[in-house]
Write a structure and sequence with these properties.
By secondary structure, this protein is α/β, with parallel strands linked by helices. It is built from twelve helices and ten strands. It has one domain: Divalent-metal-dependent TIM barrel enzymes (TIM Barrel, Alpha-Beta Barrel), CATH 3.20.20.150. The protein is 41% helix and 17% strand. It has an eight-stranded parallel β-barrel with strand order 1-2-3-4-5-8-9-10. The chain is globular and about 50 Å long.
């Protein structure tokens, strides 16, 4: 199926943002992006960020933030200001996924956040790295174990590259959790943990047409680079050139 919409996860250009926030967002817009995945951290920088978002005509359907032991009211208020519909927790470190009880505890935090989010007209979601796929409980990945314990309204933002790095068949995993997946992170590469070797979508080992077909409820894909050995603006432009034709018109 085609992509419904295409974002850039602004973490990809974080170093440029640190040097020149307005200029960086203008460069992203010049490439052709009209949608971003922003963060509570960026929002917290103050009016400069919101001004740049508005000046470039960006929409931000997703915003990322920790959802554990934080001020949820402040986070969800920020998401409303940005016009986001979903707040995604993108990083619960590996050491917190040691036991089955750990997964239950994480699910409890996300479920509590989901109840609070509903008061703001929002959903919450979770984004994986590789360790939620490497770690298994009763023969199932920690990510799937987590999904089993989440409230129905909690969604997943699956990073397909990290699924592969975690040793799972991406299409198989997506098939098992497709009812939860509303967002994808879109990056490519040789499938290893060396972030500087990440590549634009379509230039690595992941079968993107098949991946997109495996997610029938997908609302948005977000181009992302954890790191890149070359010019990251060239990389996000290459991903845009590959993926934008797949966006439904």
């Amino acid at each position: 199926m085609p992509l419904r919409s295409l974002s850039l996860q602004l973490y990809s250009v974080r170093h440029a943002i640190d040097e020149d926030l307005p200029g960086t967002l203008a460069r992203v817009a010049a490439i052709g992006y009209r949608q971003i995945e922003s963060s509570y951290k960026l929002y917290s920088r103050g009016p400069e960020f919101l001004d740049a978002v508005t000046a470039n005509g960006f929409v931000s359907p997703t915003m990322t933030s920790s959802l554990i032991d934080v001020d949820l009211d402040a986070i969800f208020s920020a998401a409303n200001r940005l016009g986001a519909n979903t707040v995604v927790d993108t990083f619960i470190p590996e050491e917190f996924w040691t036991t089955d009880d750990d997964v239950t505890r994480i699910a409890g935090h996300l479920n509590a956040a989901a109840v609070k989010a509903a008061d703001y007209g929002l959903r919450v979601g979770y984004h994986n790295h590789w360790w939620e796929l490497e770690r298994r409980f009763s023969g199932r990945t920690a990510l799937e174990t987590l999904a089993d314990r989440l409230r129905p309204e909690v969604v997943l933002e699956v990073d397909a590259y990290w699924v592969a790095v975690g040793g799972e068949d991406v299409l198989g995993l997506l098939g098992r959790v497709s009812d939860r997946v509303r967002f994808l992170h879109l990056k490519d590469g040789p499938v290893n943990r060396e972030n500087t070797q990440q590549l634009p979508a379509g230039q690595g080992k992941l079968p993107w047409p098949e991946i997109l077909d495996a997610v029938p409820h997908l609302e948005a894909g977000a181009v992302e680079f954890d790191d890149y050995s070359g010019d990251v603006f060239e990389a996000i432009a290459a991903s845009f050139a590959y993926l934008n034709p797949k966006v439904e018109r």
